Amino acid sequence: MRKIKLILILLICCSLITGCAETKILERISLVTLIGYDNGDEDKVTATTVVRQINPEFESRVETQTETEATSKGTRIKVDMKTAKKLAAGQLRVVLYGEELAKQGIEESIQTLLSNSEISTSVYLAVVRGESKTLIEQNYEGISDIGQHLYNLIDHNIEQQQLISSTLHEIGRDNQSKVRNFALPILKKEGQFIGITGTAFFNKGKMVGELPSSDISYLVLICDSFKSGTLELSLDSESISPTVETKGDTLNLAVDSIKSKSIIKVTDAKKNEFDLNILLKCRLLETSNKIDISDPKVNKTIEKAMNEKIESEISRIIKYTKEIESDIFGFGEEYRSQVRGANLTEEKWMEMYKKMKLNINVDVEIIRNGVYE
Amino acid sequence: MFGMKKIRKINKSNDSSAKTEAKHIKIPSSKVEFIEKLKEITHSPADLMIKEISDTITIIYVDFLIDVNTLNEQILPTLEKTDCATPRIIKESLLVAEVDLGSELNKCVLEMLIGAVLIHVEGNSELVIAKISAYQTRSLTTPENESQVIGSQIGFNESLATNISLIRRYITNPNLSNEKYVIGKETNTSLSVLYIKGIASEEYVNTVRQRIIDLDVSDILDSAILTELIDDNSLTIFPQMLLTERPDRFCDGLLSGKVGIVVNGSSMAILCPYTFFEFFQSREDQNLRWPIATFLRLLRFSAILISIFFTPIYVATLTFHYEVIPQPLLVPLSESRAIVPFPPIIEALFLELIIELLREAGARLPTKVGQTIGIVGGIVLGTAAVQAGITSNILIIIIALCALSAFTTPNYVMGNVIRILRFPIIFLAGFWGFYGIMFAFCLLIIHLLRQSSLGAPYLQPFYPPRWKDMADSVIRLPLPFINRQPILTSRKVNDKASNNNSSNEEKMKQS
């Protein structure tokens, strides 16, 4: 009898609780796939949303809505008033920030995105040269759904390691760390196309500097293990002569990384000295001159020249990040984890970062050549 | 003889009053009295044949139950030759294999109803029972419900004697024990409990014996009813004993230490104890090369998961969790759903119901009409439903996949369970989304863990983990790795356990 009572109570509870679950039936909601935030007037934010509308004629329509309001939630309410179906952000793939807004700071916006349980943390973030509104609202030929297009654009470039991964998860992690900054890709409208033009560096959530897209490979080389990216180098002919003869002043090379490893080591905590060891095993894809790579001498020379070239490029980039005070590589995190009792604060680390002494050792090894896909 | 003892035992143990009364009916020595008494007991049916051979000898049998040839060629000539004889002489002179003397009328009548000729000699209170029964049985055919490509193509039929002879053809072994019981107050159905002494665990044999003896039922018409009556848990949806119509599968079970029951009049034999995972194995797995058998088993197990959870996941995703839909699927999914006026749960239940109706209609209809059902269901309902905008075409694919997956279960009873399980989970998914599915999944696992078959854990070899038995569970390793007597039915393990238990019980009693 007691058992029956228990089952009865359970059943009643179950049937009552069903009312608490909020249904979001796929075709009865408008799916937001892309949001672009811009600076509005008087401390307000302009949100441009790309909404996928599903209608019964077996075709889906993409519409863009722009609203200006003090908070992003406010803009959402306003957009909601304009759409026939309830807005749902769960399928959001890309969030864009206008350049001006990025310079003013996007820290709060990242926090808002993170605290919305509906939004996945695999959303990509990017900065738009100019205003994101103009980039989104333009009608592109051949791009039916700009949300999907931008997602694919960023996704495949990150996959191929031509971009630093900028998912909400990683940006949120870097942002919450006191001693680390983050970087976002910069998108630019180029006529009928949208291209990736560089990397924006942030400090305390504010965009402080940028590097062109040609430097992205080096950034990935430092930050990440380089598995599938391609690196293009031009070596001075002086550095490789007389073993290798070149036609012009430079020898242009393209290498494809097979395996790379970057290790940051604190060699002297007191003197603020770091080691950055980069091991790169690569295959030679292309050269501007015909060179006999099977000759071990030539091979050695080229490897050595590449080491020097990459070292100089990296030190240039690090110098730039020191100037703009943006540690996107995580030297601060390494210091904090490797040095006992470091007690780093944001300000303290920035001071240290600027004075940091870094020994860069690059070890390139060409292990294959001639065949690639 | 052993069987006869058993019957008496049952009579004693069950309702003693009625049976003891019947036991006392002695056979009248006078012919007239005997015939009258017999007619009184059997209520003189139309097919009762009473034949007076001479002044003293009378034979009685039930028409169509006996082999007329034997009667004509063996019994009648012998009886005519021996004129004034005692039943003992007749018994010895009859050229029939099974001849017995009976002194209890009731028992003799029972024998007559099975197919014996009773021979009464004037002035003797004993009857000669010549068992020359001839059943009208179906010839042995291929098993229809458990078909397999490679392997023997013979199935049980409805005759107990034929079935046991089939089993003895497979296992020629004096240790093959056959215990005969008669249950059912109205039907007197005979059944045999078969096991191999030395392989089968005594504990299981005793349990089966006990459960059969304790039965107090009026009738057993099929072995399926018996399984429900002697199950560990009759309330659960899951079968705990295997019903098989394949003698090779039955013998395979016996040889691995299981206990088998064959019921007269049923073409399905029972094997127990049986675990959940064994229901998804087919005898054919043993006949195929091991990588193929392993692949097929894994396919079957994934089919269970697909069949139970695919539709609920669809319902939950489209109702609550649109976030998890991969981006490439988003557009086709939403476009196919766009014109459907119902929420996903109604849509899914509607289609599932159609499939179930089709299956049920197909099973009930004569085979010739059954084909039209397939056409009506597949083409008319399927395409029309999509065109009318009642369901989305992606759901049709999912439902078809689920239905197909459910049919891969080699056991029909278990296949039904897998099909039906989906419905409550669809409801939960429609109400609570993924939480509901997880809730159902947990309940299912808890329920399965609580089940047992003859006291053996139902989820063996996964819980409790029996690593040695894993070789022949969801995978099948090459034969040398397979333990022919799994721990489940191992004599050593189980008998040791039961001895411990019994000794404990004794201790308890003493204290």
UniProtKB/TrEMBL annotation, chain A:
InterPro entries, per the entry: GerAC_N (IPR057336), Spore_GerAC-like (IPR008844), Spore_GerAC-like_C (IPR046953), Spore_GerAC_C_sf (IPR038501)
Q: Name one GO biological process term.
A: spore germination
Where can this protein be found? Answer: Membrane
Alphabetized, the UniProt keywords read: Germination, Lipoprotein, Membrane, Palmitate, Signal
Ranges of residues in domain Spore germination GerAC-like C-terminal: 197-370
Name a GO CC annotation attached to this entry.
Answer: membrane
In terms of Pfam families, this protein maps to:
Spore_GerAC (PF05504), Spore_GerAC_N (PF25198)
Q: Which residues form the Spore germination protein N-terminal domain?
A: 24-188
Please give, as recorded in its UniProt entry, the membrane topology of this protein: Lipid-anchor
Indicate whether Membrane appears among the record's keywords: yes
Q: Which family does it belong to?
A: Belongs to the GerABKC lipoprotein family.
Indicate what this protein is called per its UniProt record.
Spore germination protein
Species assigned in the record: Ureibacillus chungkukjangi
TrEMBL record, chain B:
Membrane-spanning segments: 298-318, 338-357, 369-388, 394-413, 425-449
* Pfam families, alphabetized: GerA
Which parts of the sequence are annotated with region: Disordered? 1-21
Annotated GO biological processes are: spore germination
Q: Glycoprotein among the record's keywords?
A: no
Q: Which GO terms describe its cellular component?
A: membrane
* Start-end of Basic residues biased regions: 1-11
- Keywords recorded for this protein, A-Z: Membrane, Transmembrane, Transmembrane helix
Family assignment from sequence similarity? Belongs to the GerABKA family.
Name of the protein described by the UniProt record: GerA spore germination protein
